[in-house]
Amino acid sequence: MANNTLIIGIGNYGRSDDALGWKVADYFAEFHQEFDVEYRYQLQIEDAELIARYDTVIFTDASREQHKKGFEYSLCKPESFTLYTSHKLPPEHVYWLAKELYAANTECWVMAISGYQWELNQGLSTKARINLDNAIRFFDKITL
Questions:
Q1: What is d(CA 55, CA 91) in angstroms, rounded to the nearest whole number?
Q2: Range of the domain at 56
Q3: What is the DSSP pairing of strand 107-114 with strand 56-63?
Q4: Greatest CA separation found in the chain?
C-alpha cells in the first residue's frame, strides 16, 4: 500500500448518471495521485479486506436522493444488516465487516451525488454534471 487513503468509485459508465461515482474516481486518479483509487460496480464482501488496509476510505456513488447542495458528504458508520445477498452491499455494512473480520481502524466517508437519469446511456445529465462539479470543488477544498 503506497497511500493511506482509498477512493472507491461505485457506478457504471453505461447507465447515465450512475457514472457519478466513477467520475469522482477518475478525477482523483488524474489530479490527486496521493490517493489510491478503485472502481466497483457494487460493493461486495471482499471489499472489507481491502478497506481494512487503509487509514481513510471515501466511497463515492450516485444517489437517487436529491441533496440540497447536489451532494452529501457524511461520515460512514459501521452497521450490521440482515441481507439476503452478498452482492450490492451498502458501504456501512462493508465497513462493519472490515471492523468485525479484520479489526480495521479505518475512517470511512460517503460522498453521495444526486443523479437524475439511470437508463442505458453514456454521459451525464446536465444537472448531474453540475452536482459532480460541486462535489469535486468540495473535495479540492478539504484535500488541499
A1: 16
A2: 5-143
A3: parallel
A4: 42
pLDDT tens digits, 121-131? 999 999 999 99
**Cα–Cα distance, 79 to 68 (Å, whole number):** 25
**pLDDT higher than threshold 70 for residue 86:** no
Of 58, 73, 68, 61, residue with least CA distance to 107:
58
**Which of the two residues, 23 and 83, has the higher pLDDT score?**
23
CA separation for the pair 136, 138 (Å, rounded): 5
Query: What is the Cα–Cα distance from 20 to 84, expressed in whole angstroms?
Result: 27
- CATH code: domain of residue 26: 3.40.50.1450
Backbone phi and psi for residue 97, each to the nearest 5 degrees, phi listed first: -60, -40
Name residue, grid cell 477544498. Answer: 141
The Cα–Cα gap between 113 and 76 comes to 15
Task: Strand 36-40: give its sheet, edge to edge.
Answer: 36-40, 5-10, 56-63, 107-114, 71-75
